Structure formats: structure tokens, C-alpha cells
């Protein structure tokens, strides 16, 4: 197995799908030089017929992706940074999410919109959001956020092959994380969570950046006799409720860690546990998330609002040992 | 033409451009020394645009700026020390460390803020123009934006709205040859200034290596706006001399990936500060300004260096009025 970064894994996924299916095309913001690296070297390999730069017209190039997808093309569109989804909001939330349903199932839109999400390094408020909570309530869109190179590759390939619009978020703080990726062809199906660590004292549900924090917290907690089970949801919509519930029923304790402002994953998972695993909960649920302010610029302020392994560990202790 | 230029105006324009250039060069130095968090997009080379336009504005006129905003802010009268403190993330910065380079604002002199979103500032400038009309004031609003922003929906929508409502707005498009890492002509159809015609708005192209030319174009546009005749689009052409953002090589895998060294060196011959300096017949005046600016920059850095970082609990302040 090769050991590569999340960015390299995504590049391999796109390359393989461009190779496999002549209907796959890639366009977006500076994809030829590939600012975050997921398209590195692809224009040299496939040429500008298959991958090229688009003007800063997010609303229109996302919408054009829908029209092309309805006509049999499979566009992979790079918005670069997650907050630019807001510029394209009508085309995403009101068009992509609804056209298939409204047309009584006629429209088929195999389009992937990819962008990094999350805060890192004082990029300040307008470049630091994790916008996926908005899209968890958008009906006809699938929403993906991997935390490892293997998941990134398998999920991106599955997203490109999916016949629905997929918003594929890349975890900014983990792009350089290395991990093993199988050499043979594989996909990771959308809609399935993954248990990243087994444990029976407390369930920590995370996604993207908070999966790594949860794993770090679990190591600290293990030294204190607390065995955390870490559930990586991987796909925010559809959400693998059964995997979450199975773990919660086993441990009886739940922490949900999410870098996004809430309501979002933490709110939703807490509600699911309250509705469907209430009888097995032995302590109130704890949530770790970014408070509802724009992400501030100055490092101590940014650090204060973002989740961290320490905050996740503290929440787990609270759930296991009672309030401190 | 230059012979008739008022010497005081020349020195005023020189001072503004010199302040911007020196500020930006200092910011680059501090950035590479690891003193500044986040990203910086510098304005070096384009000084004549902000300077020539803002020299026609009053403190109560409004501007909206961009991710590459330091020059607009300095030209409109922002304080160097509070700007610098903001870049450090310090509590004495204009935004108390909440905003950083891409979000500096000073409402006391009509700066409604730099902006992290390309095309985000145009509608806000239109709104400031609308307020001027509601208040029956002769204030005007200027939207600075790049060639890249001219392809956002907000560009066409803002021109249309300002035109049909006859709002006192000056749209200043800085065509610096590149949209991030792509040459403008690969992304942008036709001539940006000519797009104005479709909205019944005058559109002009100016070569922004000459601040006097920019100043004159802006003077006419501002006069038109103040008189109630409506908006103007100015396309100011001048390459940026530095990276899209400092440290861009890390994002694109090296140097000279989207423009050649030769082309940049040729573009840098069109230096607006040098051009103006050669026209000014007052070497002492120039030297005095150079000294004063250098001192102001040093003072700003000292102010930034000693401004404390905000306490973590400040993260939750300022959310609602
Ligand atoms: C809506 C939006 N899309 C993309 C970006 C990322 N981005 C920041 S600056 C920039 C290039 C802007 O080009 P231009 O408007 O010509 O301004 P310049 O950088 O040349 O001053 C891009 C793509 C952004 N900040 N906002």
C-alpha cells in the first residue's frame, strides 16, 4: 500500500476517474495550477479539453455544471474554498437540491462540487467556515467530508460516479496528513460511517478535522482508563444513523465533535441519540463545536473558538465522570 | 499636460503612493519574518489607482475595498499604526484583531472595509450611494475591485442598479493582468470598461502607471456622481508587481508558474511612483516626504509590535449591535 497525503489521494481519484470515463471533466478556480493540490499535474496529463480554469463566476459555473450533468457530462467543479458556496447558493440549494425531485425524477445530475472547509492559520472569517450544516438540510444533495487519505480517495471516486449532486468538502487542516491507500481500485460507498477506533466507555462522533482530534483525545483518555470509540461519519448526508446508534447503545455515552457552527452535525446526532437511544444513555450528551461567531483572525481568538483534542477530551471526561 | 499640474497636488499624490509602497514593503518583510499571521495580498505597483481616485474624495465619501485593500485604505486616510496593529492581530488594530488584512475597516473616514469575497464590495458601495440619495447628500461611493470580480454576478447587477437609480457610485476596476494565477484574457471576455455601455453607464480605460491620468478620470467621475448624473466605470490598467499573495509559491509549486520573469520586469518599468517623482520639480519636498513616510512606518511597526493580543474571551464580543 502506498502512503500518501489526502491531497494526493484526491488527485489520484480524479485522475483515475478522468481515465475511466470520458464524460468526466474538471473545471473551477485555478485548477490548472491547483491551489490546494487536488488537481496537481492533471492538466499536463489530460489537457485543457478535460480540465481548465473557470472565471470567478461561482453561481454560473456551478449552475452550468448542473445543466451539463443533465445532458450526460459528469463535471467535477472546484470552488477552492468552502465559503464560495455562498456565492453559488441558489444554484446549490434551490436548483441542485430540488430539480430532480421537482421534475418527478427526470433530472439526473452527476456533478461533484469540491472545496476545502475549516479554519486554519488565521485566514479570517470569510475564508474559514465549515459550511456543510447548511447543506445537511438541502434535500437532494449528498455531502461528504473525509478524514483520511484512503477515505478521501474512495469517497471522491464514489462521488464522481454518483448520479446525484455531491458536495465534497476537503478538510483543510488535514490535507497534508499521510495514510495508507490500497493500490488496487476501490471505492468507499457514500452514506456509511466508519469506526476509526474501538472502545466501550464513550462514543465520540466526529467528521473531518474533529476525527483526528477525537483520536488524539482517545489516546490521552486511554491513559486515564477511558476507552473511547471514535465514529467518523464521513458522509453528512445521508447520515449513517445506525452506525452512530449502535455505538451509543454500546457505550451509553456520547460526545459529538464538529468544527462547524451549530445547528449541524452535533445538534443532529444529539437529537438522534435522544430520540432513538435515550434508554441507553447514562449521561447527558456533550457537544464540542465552534460557537456562533464568525471565525476571528487573531491567533488567540481563532484558537479560542475552534475545537481541539483537549476540548474533546475534556468533554469526554465530563460525560464519563460527571460534571467537573 | 503635466506642466500645468499643481505642485501641491503632485506632492500630495506622491506622499500617498510612497506611504502605500513603503507600508507594503514593510508588510512583506514582516510576513517573511513570521511576524504576521494569515495571508497578505499586497498592492505594490497599483498605488496610482487608489491614490488618484481617493485624492478626489472627502472623509464622508465611502469606499469598499478588496482582499488587496491596504492601498485603498491608506489612500482614503486610514492610520498606518492601527492598520499595522490589525495585521499583527493586536487589540489596538482597527478590528481589535478580529479581521486581519482582508477585513480592515475604518468607518470614521468612510472605509466600509476590505473584503475577502471577490465581488462582495460592489453592492455595498451601491448601497452607500443609495443612502446618499435618500439623505439628499452629495456624498459619493467608490467600489474598488479587480478584473476577476468583473465576472461575478454582482458586477453586472451593481452597474444596472446604480444606473437605473442614478446613484453616485464610481466603479473602479483594477485590471492587474491576472485573476489570482490565471491571465485575465483567459477568463474575461472583451474589454471590461466597454461592458458599462450595456448598462448605459460611461466606461473609461486609464493606464494606471500615471497617477495624474487616474486622478483626472476619477475627478470627472466623482463630479458626475456628485451632480446626480449617476455612476461611471473606470478600468485602470496596471500589473501588480508582487505575488498574488505573499508566499504564493507554496500554493502553486514554485516561481514563474503563470507569468515570466521578463514580462514582470518589463511591467515594472511602468512604476507610477518613479513616473511621478520624475515630474516633480521639488527634490527637497520629495526627500521630506520620503523621510516622514519612513518614520511613520517605523512608528506603525513599533505600535503593532507592542499591541497586546486580545484575550480569548473577546472572541464572543461584537456580534450584535
Ligand atoms: C467569490 C470568491 N471567489 C474566489 C476567491 C478567491 N480569490 C481571492 S482573490 C482572487 C483573485 C481575484 O482577482 P481580481 O479580482 O482580479 O483581483 P486581484 O487579486 O488581481 O487584485 C481569488 C480567485 C474569493 N476570495 N472570493
Q: Could you characterize what this model shows?
A:
The complex is a heterodimer of chains A (324) and B (321). Chain A is of the alpha/beta class and 324 residues long. Chain A has two domains: 2-181, Thiamin diphosphate (ThDP)-binding fold, Pyr/PP domains (Rossmann fold, 3-Layer(aba) Sandwich); 194-321, 3-Layer(aba) Sandwich (Rossmann fold). Chain A contains twelve helices and 14 strands. Chain A has a seven-stranded mixed β-sheet, with helices on both faces. In chain A, helix 1 (6-20) runs parallel beside helix 7 and helix 9 (241-251) packs across helix 10 (265-276). Chain B is 43% helix and 10% strand. Chain B is α/β, with parallel strands linked by helices and 321 residues long. Chain B has helices at residues 7-32, 47-54, 70-76, 80-88, 122-134, 153-164, 184-187, 211-226, 249-252, 261-267, 272-279, 283-306; strands at residues 62-64, 141-146, 169-175, 178-179, 182-183, 203-207, 232-237. In chain B, strand 6 (203-207), helix 8 and strand 7 (232-237) form a beta-alpha-beta unit. Chain B is globular. Chain A binds chain B through residues 29-30, 32-36, 40, 53-60, 83-84, 86-87, 121-127, 291-294, 296-301, 303-305, and chain B through 37-39, 89-90, 95, 97-103, 115-120, 148-149, 151-153, 179-182, 186-188, 251-253, 257-258, 309-316, 319. The complex binds thiamine diphosphate.
Amino acid at each position: 500500500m502506498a502512503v500518501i497525503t489526502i491531497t494526493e489521494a484526491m488527485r489520484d481519484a480524479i485522475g483515475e476517474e478522468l481515465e475511466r470515463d470520458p464524460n468526466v471533466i474538471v473545471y473551477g478556480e485555478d485548477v490548472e495550477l491547483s491551489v490546494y493540490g487536488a488537481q496537481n499535474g492533471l492538466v499536463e496529463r489530460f489537457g485543457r479539453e478535460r480540465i481548465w480554469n473557470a472565471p470567478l463566476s461561482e453561481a454560473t459555473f456551478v449552475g452550468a455544471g448542473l445543466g451539463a450533468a443533465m445532458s450526460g457530462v459528469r463535471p467535477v467543479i472546484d470552488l477552492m474554498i468552502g465559503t464560495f458556496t455562498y456565492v453559488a447558493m441558489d444554484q446549490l440549494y434551490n436548483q441542485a437540491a430540488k430539480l430532480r425531485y421537482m421534475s418527478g425524477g427526470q433530472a439526473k445530475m452527476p456533478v461533484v462540487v469540491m472545496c476545502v472547509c475549516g479554519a486554519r492559520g488565521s485566514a479570517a472569517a470569510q475564508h474559514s467556515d465549515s459550511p456543510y450544516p447548511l447543506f445537511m438540510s438541502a434535500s437532494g444533495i449528498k455531502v461528504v467530508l473525509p478524514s483520511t487519505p484512503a477515505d478521501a480517495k474512495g469517497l471522491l471516486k464514489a462521488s464522481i460516479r454518483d448520479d446525484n449532486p455531491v458536495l465534497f468538502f476537503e478538510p483543510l487542516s488535514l490535507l497534508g496528513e499521510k495514510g495508507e491507500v490500497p493500490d488496487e481500485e476501490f471505492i468507499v460507498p457514500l452514506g456509511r460511517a466508519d469506526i476509526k477506533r474501538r472502545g466501550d466507555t464513550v462514543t465520540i462522533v466526529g467528521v473531518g478535522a474533529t476525527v483526528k482530534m477525537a483520536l488524539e483525545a482517545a489516546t490521552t483518555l486511554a491513559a486515564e482508563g477511558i476507552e473511547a470509540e471514535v465514529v467518523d461519519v464521513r458522509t453528512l448526508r445521508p447520515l449513517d444513523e445506525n452506525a452512530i446508534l449502535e455505538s451509543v447503545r454500546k457505550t451509553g455515552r456520547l460526545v459529538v465533535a464538529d468544527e462547524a457552527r451549530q445547528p449541524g452535525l452535533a445538534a443532529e446526532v444529539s437529537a438522534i441519540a435522544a430520540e432513538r437511544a435515550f434508554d441507553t444513555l447514562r449521561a447527558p450528551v456533550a457537544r464540542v463545536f465552534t460557537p456562533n461567531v464568525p471565525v476571528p483572525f487573531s491567533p488567540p481568538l481563532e484558537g479560542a473558538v475552534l475545537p481541539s483534542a483537549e476540548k474533546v477530551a475534556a468533554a469526554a471526561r465530563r460525560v464519563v465522570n460527571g460534571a467537573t | 499636460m503635466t506642466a500645468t499640474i499643481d505642485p501641491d497636488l503632485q506632492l500630495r499624490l506622491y506622499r500617498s503612493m510612497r506611504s502605500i509602497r513603503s507600508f507594503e514593503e514593510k508588510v512583506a518583510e514582516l510576513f517573511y519574518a513570521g511576524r504576521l499571521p494569515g495571508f497578505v495580498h499586497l498592492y505594490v505597483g497599483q498605488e496610482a489607482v487608489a491614490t488618484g481616485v481617493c485624492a478626489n474624495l472627502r472623509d464622508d465619501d465611502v469606499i469598499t475595498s478588496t482582499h488587496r485593500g491596504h492601498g485603498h485604505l491608506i489612500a482614503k486616510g486610514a492610520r498606518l499604526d492601527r492598520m499595522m496593529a490589525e495585521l499583527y492581530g493586536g487589540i489596538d488594530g482597527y478590528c481589535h484583531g478580529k479581521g486581519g488584512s482582508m477585513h480592515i475597516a475604518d468607518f470614521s473616514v468612510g472605509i466600509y472595509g476590505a473584503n475577502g469575497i471577490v465581488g462582495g464590495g460592489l453592492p455595498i458601495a451601491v448601497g452607500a450611494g443609495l443612502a446618499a440619495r435618500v439623505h439628499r447628500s452629495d456624498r459619493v461611493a467608490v467600489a474598488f475591485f479587480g478584473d476577476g470580480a468583473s465576472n461575478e454576478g454582482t458586477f453586472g447587477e451593481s452597474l444596472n442598479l446604480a444606473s437605473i437609480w442614478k446613484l453616485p457610485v464610481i466603479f473602479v476596476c483594477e485590471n492587474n493582468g491576472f485573476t489570482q494565477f490565471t491571465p485575465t484574457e483567459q477568463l474575461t471576455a472583451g474589454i471590461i470598461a466597454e461592458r458599462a455601455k450595456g448598462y448605459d453607464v460611461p466606461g473609461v480605460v486609464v493606464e494606471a502607471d500615471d497617477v495624474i491620468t487616474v486622478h483626472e478620470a476619477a475627478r470627472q467621475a466623482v463630479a458626475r456622481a456628485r451632480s446626480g448624473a449617476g455612476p461611471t466605470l473606470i478600468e485602470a490598467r496596471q500589473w501588480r508587481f508582487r505575488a498574488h499573495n505573499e508566499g504564493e509559491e507554496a500554493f502553486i509549486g514554485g516561481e514563474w508558474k503563470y507569468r515570466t520573469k521578463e514580462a514582470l520586469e518589463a511591467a515594472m518599468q511602468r512604476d507610477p511612483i518613479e513616473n511621478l517623482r520624475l515630474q516633480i520639480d521639488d527634490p527637497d519636498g520629495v526627500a521630506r516626504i520620503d523621510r516622514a513616510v519612513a518614520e511613520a512606518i517605523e512608528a506603525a511597526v513599533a505600535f503593532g509590535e507592542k499591541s497586546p493580543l486580545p484575550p480569548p474571551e473577546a472572541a464572543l464580543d461584537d456580534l450584535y449591535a
